[in-house]
């Protein structure tokens, strides 16, 4: 592999973040990571060309949709070109050679801390400290060099930065999956696509949503997700996000064309292969 | 009015919070407020009888659903017995007699601070300080007694606690409405109900959601809201929340009975009068 063939990919967080792991699952090793501080910065990096693609989380199986990223998908002109579902497995990571009983302080992203409540309940003397990123908290822990400090992050973060995994599977609930989207400026190849994500608005009349879904049901086209978000300036009206299964050259595409004619506004956010898992964890 | 005829109502936040204002809109003056520190505590207070009813926000027209309260509606056995939509109008409240140019520090709930970004952009020297409650930050400001301190809260909070409104309508977006639900242990009278909220799950088969909505569309029964939330332990499966318009003794009730037969699980969260506004702001 040479650097010239690598794809530059923006993610929120440092190397070893769950977004990085998701990017590796979709793209394999052929990527050059471009860490960003925020989701907005990821969208910016792809939009202005600083990165060729970007990866953001869109939904967690325990906590639900990451609604702010749904809003960004609608507001920004990027295309979804891939996705993956990642099993979120948190590791307690410390300096090499330390024991669990030495740990007094554990840093991580607030969501990761919230997903590991049982660990903190079982270790009441351990202080939970919020950080902007899971993998970033590993880097800071190593930089601080204190035996009493640890971080919650992926095994990948420990491997990449040289921390030691003291405990694996610290999360409360093993059914913890996050779905990530891969985004690019251009749309992906339609041939391999098995899923299409759209956002649309409807005229505010009775049965409008039912009629919209009818175009799919009549053709036996299945939907894997529906999400509603408020429309700014139009209180109690909504934009609907749908994930439609099937290749857009088939019945799914016909249904989308029919919906496009009936909807007030409709935008295809991208057609892409469903849940491609190159390297299951 | 005597105290004996008052209804005890739990809300998150202190007297003068937007939840308090919502409770006054639905119930009029005949309430005895029971302030709580959290939404969980509001549900607890109604469940264990410490309060007869409780008011919680469920949706904001700018930021969307308050998903944690949807989850609580599903998990707790309470009934929705009323609702109101409140125009959220933030006031800058200081000690009586101070000028805006004296203010150096403004406290409020983080959501209120986020809804007033323009004020802070226009007053870069003013520090925004997060507090657990809008009205509570007025109480703390008055207690501190410093001319440089102010809070963002409702006019009602200023009136009740003796602060002075220095600026009204500080929020960035005038289209800022929040919908609140009134909850009780017992269900409300069906006769006056014009809306029914339900939560249901479906078997994971193609077209299931379409078939569920079809029972309403076929009878011309309108839906005012659909929301999906993840099911714990069943990744990528969802509970759906619907608001169904019409009296449950009519076509809406027939549709609900049919859906009940077809759904995997269905629970009526409550039938109640829609958007009753006793005292519009």
- Rg of chain A over CA atoms, rounded to whole Å, is 21 Å
**Largest interface chains and counts:** A-B, 38 and 37 residues
- Number of DSSP helical runs of chain A: 9
Work out the strand percent of chain A: 25-35%
CATH topology of the largest domain in chain A: D-Maltodextrin-Binding Protein, domain 2
Distance between the termini of chain A: 23 Å
Tally of structural domains of chain A: 3
Return the average pLDDT of chain A rounded to an integer.
Answer: 92
From the spread of the alpha carbons, the general shape of chain A counts as elongated
Largest sheet of chain A: 6 strands, mixed
Q: Which stretches of chain A are poorly predicted, pLDDT < 50 over at least 5 residues?
A: 277-281
- Class by alpha and beta content of chain A: alpha/beta
Oligomer: homodimer
* CATH structural class of the largest domain in chain A: Alpha Beta
Number of strands of chain A: 15
Keywords:
homodimer; 281 residues; alpha/beta; D-Maltodextrin-Binding Protein, domain 2; Alpha-Beta Plaits; 3 domains; 6-stranded mixed β-sheet; 5-stranded mixed β-sheet; 9 helices; 28% helix
Q: Please, could you describe this protein's structure?
A:
Two copies of one chain form a homodimer. Chain A is an alpha/beta fold and 281 residues long. In chain A, strands 1, 2, 3, 4, 5 and 11 form a six-stranded mixed beta sheet that branches. The longest helix of chain A has 12 residues. Chain A folds into three domains: 94 residues, Periplasmic binding protein-like II (D-Maltodextrin-Binding Protein, domain 2, 3-Layer(aba) Sandwich); 78 residues, D-Maltodextrin-Binding Protein, domain 2; 78 residues, ACT domain (Alpha-Beta Plaits), CATH 3.30.70.260. Chain A contains nine helices and 15 strands. The first copy, chain A, starts with 6 loop residues before the first strand and ends in a 9-residue tail after the last strand. Chain A is 28% helix and 33% strand. At the A-B interface, helix 8 and strand 13 of A face helix 8, strand 13 and strand 14 of B.
